[in-house]
Design a protein that fits this description.
Chain lengths: ~400, ~140
C-alpha cells in the first residue's frame, strides 16, 4: 500500500428540510465549508468524487464545479445506493494512493424531503390481460404479493432473521425499539440532526407500525443534506501548517466490498457477509481490533439493521448482539458508543450524503470538536455504510498525534 | 389455457410447486432467467423442484405497501429444506401473536382474479402446517 491519506477538511450541512436550496446549493455549501475547514481552496484539488442519486440527469460533479470552480480536474460521478458518499470518498482516496493526486474532494448530497417511504412497489398500469414480463415472467407486480420489496420490510426481515438464527426468547418489538430509543436520545445533543427529540420506549412502540417490528421512529428519516471531505496525501500534508496537521485525521483503513454469493442472497439481501468481509479487511489494514475503537457510526437505516451490524462489525462475540446491547456497551458512556450522532433514525438519511456525514461525525470527536456530545479522549473511530444491492463501505479513522 | 401462474417459477402441474434453476456445476439455485451462475460462473442449469414445506426464518408484517396491496400482510423468508424462498403467508392472522419464527408452513395457491379473456391468475403463499395456527380458509388450497 502506498502513502498515508488524511482527512484535511470535512463538513456536513444541517440535515432536514432545505426547501430553498437545490442539490447543487447543498453540495456547494458542504464542499466550500470542507475546503475552508481544511484551509485550502478549489485550486488545490486534483480530483473530485461526486455522489448523488436523485438529482436528475447530468453529472452532479460538473454542476458543482460550475458553482465552486471549473478547474478542469477529473470528476468521477458515482452511485452506489446508500454507500454512494463512501464510494465518492474512496474514489478520491484511491486517486491519492495511486499517486495521481495529492489532494481530493468528495461530496455527497441528496434532496429527499417529502419523498415518503422508499417502497419498492410503484408500478405502471397493467394491461387487461395477464402478460408475463421481466426476469421471472411476472403477470403482475410481485411486491406485496410474493413477499415484500419495501426497505422497511426488507430490513425488518434481516433483523428477525438474526433473532431466528440466535434463538431470541424476548419480544422483538421491545428489543428493536430500545435501539431506537438509544439513538433518539443521542440525537438531542446533535444540532445538525433532522430530529432531536427524545422518545420513550412506549412512544416508539406505540407509533405508527410501518413493517413489524419497525415502527416509524425506527426507520431512517428522509431529509435533505450534504457532506463533503477534503483528503490529502501524507506527503502533501507535511508541507502544510501546524494547525492543518494538528486537525488532520488519518485514514487507517478504507474498504469497499460488494456482496459475495451466499445461499438465499437473491431472495433476501445478505447484508451480513459483505459487512463482515469489509470489517475484517478494515481491521487488518488498520492493524487494530474492534476493542480499540472509541466510537462507531454504523448504518442504522432501520433499528433492525443496527443489531445485526454489532455482530457483523465484530463489536460483540458471534451471535451475541442482543447481550452486547443489553450490557450497555453501545450507549454513550459504554465501552464502544454506537451512533452518538443519533444515527439515521434521528439525524436523517439523505442517501448520498450519509457515507461522508458519518465520517464527519467520527472526525469531529477525534478532533475534540464535538461539543456537548464529545466522546472524551476519542482516538480511533469507525464509520460504516451499507448500500442495498449491495455495497459496504468502512473507514477507520485516527486522531492526529 | 385458462390459468396462468403469477411468475414462471410457480409450476401448477402436477401439483403446485416452485421450480428453481439449479446450476449443474455447483448446485446453487435461482429463480428467474439466468445469464450465468452467481456462485461459480457456470452456464448450465437444470430445473429443480423446491419442497413445498418449509420453516419461517424471518418475517415482517407490512402495514404500508403499494396501491392495490391489502395491508397488513405477512411477508416471510422460508427455508424449504435448504432452498430459500420468499412469499406472503396465507391463511394466518397478520399479527405477532399468530406468526412466529420457526413456524412450519406449506405452499398454497391463491387466485389473483381473471383477466379480460377469462384467464385466472394464480398466486401462491405459505400457510401454517398446523391447522390450529390457520384462520378459516376462504381461498386457496393445499398443494
Amino acid at each position: 500500500m502506498s502513502a498515508d491519506v488524511y482527512i484535511l477538511g470535512i463538513n456536513m450541512t444541517r440535515f432536514g428540510k432545505h426547501p430553498d436550496a437545490d442539490t447543487t446549493d447543498l453540495g456547494a455549501e458542504a464542499a466550500l465549508a470542507a475546503l475552508a475547514d481544511g484551509g485550502v481552496t478549489i485550486d488545490d484539488i486534483d480530483v473530485i468524487g461526486a455522489g448523488n442519486l436523485l438529482g436528475g440527469p447530468g453529472g452532479f460533479g460538473q454542476m458543482l464545479q460550475k458553482q465552486i470552480g471549473q478547474t478542469g480536474v477529473p470528476v468521477y460521478n458515482v452511485q452506489n445506493a446508500c454507500a454512494t458518499g463512501a464510494t465518492a470518498l474512496r474514489t478520491a482516496i484511491m486517486a491519492i494512493k495511486a499517486g495521481e493526486a495529492q489532494m481530493g474532494l468528495a461530496v455527497g448530497v441528496e434532496k429527499l424531503s417529502g419523498a415518503g417511504l422508499l417502497i419498492g412497489g410503484s408500478r405502471e398500469a397493467e394491461p387487461d390481460t395477464w402478460t408475463p414480463k421481466g426476469r421471472v415472467g411476472a403477470i403482475t407486480a410481485t411486491d406485496g404479493r410474493i413477499g415484500t420489496l419495501t426497505m422497511p420490510g426488507t430490513f425488518a426481515q434481516i433483523g428477525m432473521q438474526y433473532l431466528h438464527e440466535h434463538s431470541y426468547a424476548g419480544v422483538p418489538l421491545e428489543l428493536f425499539a430500545e435501539i431506537s430509543r438509544k439513538n433518539h436520545a443521542n440525537s438531542t445533543l446533535n444540532p445538525l440532526a433532522a430530529y432531536t427529540k427524545e422518545l420513550s420506549l412506549e412512544q416508539i412502540m406505540g407509533d405508527i407500525m410501518i413493517a413489524y417490528p419497525n415502527t416509524r421512529p425506527m426507520c431512517s428519516a428522509n431529509c435533505d443534506g450534504a457532506a463533503a471531505a477534503v483528503v490529502v496525501s501524507g506527503e502533501k500534508l507535511r508541507t502544510l501548517s501546524d494547525e492543518q496537521r494538528r486537525r488532520a485525521v488519518r485514514i487507517r483503513a478504507s474498504v469497499l466490498t460488494s456482496d459475495p454469493y451466499t445461499e438465499g442472497c437473491q431472495v433476501l439481501f445478505d447484508v451480513n457477509t459483505l459487512t463482515r468481509r469489509a470489517a475484517a479487511q478494515a481491521y487488518e489494514q488498520a492493524g487494530v481490533g474492534p476493542e480499540d475503537l472509541d466510537l462507531v457510526e454504523l448504518h442504522d437505516c432501520f433499528a433492525t439493521a443496527e443489531l445485526v451490524h454489532y455482530d457483523n462489525l465484530m463489536l460483540c462475540p458471534p451471535g451475541g448482539a442482543v447481550d452486547w446491547l443489553q450490557s450497555g456497551a453501545p450507549y454513550r458512556g459504554g465501552s464502544t458508543p454506537v451512533n452518538v450522532s443519533g444515527g439515521l433514525q434521528s439525524k436523517g438519511h439523505p442517501v448520498s450524503a450519509t457515507g461522508i456525514a458519518n465520517i464527519w461525525e467520527v472526525c469531529h470527536h477525534l478532533r475534540g470538536e464535538a461539543g456537548d456530545r464529545q466522546i472524551e479522549g476519542a482516538r480511533l473511530g469507525m464509520a460504516h455504510v451499507i448500500g442495498l444491492g449491495s455495497a459496504c463501505g468502512i473507514h477507520i479513522l485516527e486522531a492526529a498525534t | 389455457m385458462d390459468r396462468i401462474p403469477i411468475v414462471d417459477y410457480l409450476a401448477l402441474e402436477p401439483e403446485p410447486h416452485l421450480r428453481a434453476h439449479q446450476c449443474t456445476a455447483c448446485g446453487a439455485r435461482f429463480f428467474g432467467r439466468r445469464n450465468a451462475c452467481a456462485s461459480c460462473g457456470g452456464t448450465s442449469f437444470a430445473a429443480a423442484a423446491v419442497p413445498s414445506e418449509g420453516t419461517v426464518t424471518a418475517f415482517t408484517i407490512v402495514s404500508f405497501a403499494a396501491p392495490g396491496i391489502e395491508v397488513p400482510f405477512v411477508a416471510a423468508i422460508i427455508d424449504c429444506d435448504g432452498t430459500t424462498v420468499q412469499a406472503n403467508l396465507a391463511n394466518v392472522t397478520p399479527d405477532a401473536d399468530h406468526v412466529h419464527l420457526g413456524q412450519r408452513v406449506r405452499l398454497v395457491t391463491t387466485s389473483l382474479g381473471t383477466d379480460a379473456e377469462g384467464v385466472e391468475g394464480v398466486g401462491f403463499g405459505y400457510e401454517p402446517v398446523d391447522a390450529a395456527e390457520r384462520t378459516a380458509t376462504t381461498e386457496g388450497s393445499a398443494a
